[in-house]
Write a structure and sequence with these properties.
mainly alpha; about 65% helix
């Protein structure tokens, strides 16, 4: 019990890399850190003029999509598999196929995500690893040239 108390109150090491014992979800702060990242992403999208075309594609208000993105990130970062439990397998490319996504929209998405990562993820190793993985994921969503 005492061991658990001290391990929860200890701040994560800034250089800690994800391991099978310590997932990215845990390193960024679990549910609170994951929700902060999802919300920051949409806050930036809603306020950054560069991302206006991307923002305009999203149904308003953003409450539902913020929650769904949090659920996806939770699963993707190695936390609770909330997305699959509620919505089934992510099949991201298929889910995004109805929307015309080109390089410009991909770049707008990454612009918002990069800003969110810079603000919300203190661990530089994890931040850069997530950035690279999310760049690949974003590029995979392109369905228009």
């Amino acid at each position: 019990m005492i061991k658990r108390f001290f391990s929860k109150s200890k701040k994560p090491e800034p250089q800690q890399a994800p391991t099978p014992e310590k997932t990215p979800y845990q390193i960024i702060g679990g549910e609170a850190g994951t929700r902060a990242l999802a919300n920051r992403f949409y806050d930036i999208m809603a306020s950054d003029e560069y991302a206006k075309p991307l923002y305009d594609m999203h149904p308003q208000p953003l409450d539902r999509i913020r929650q769904v993105f949090f659920e996806f990130l939770s699963s993707w970062l190695g936390g609770p598999d909330l997305f699959t439990e509620k919505h089934g397998h992510p099949m991201l490319r298929k889910r995004h196929m109805p929307f015309p996504i080109d390089q410009n929209l991909r770049d707008q998405w990454m612009h918002c995500m990069n800003k969110a990562l810079d603000i919300e993820v203190d661990n530089p190793l994890l931040r850069e690893g997530l950035r690279k993985s999310l760049e690949q994921l974003a590029s995979h969503m392109i369905n228009q040239h």
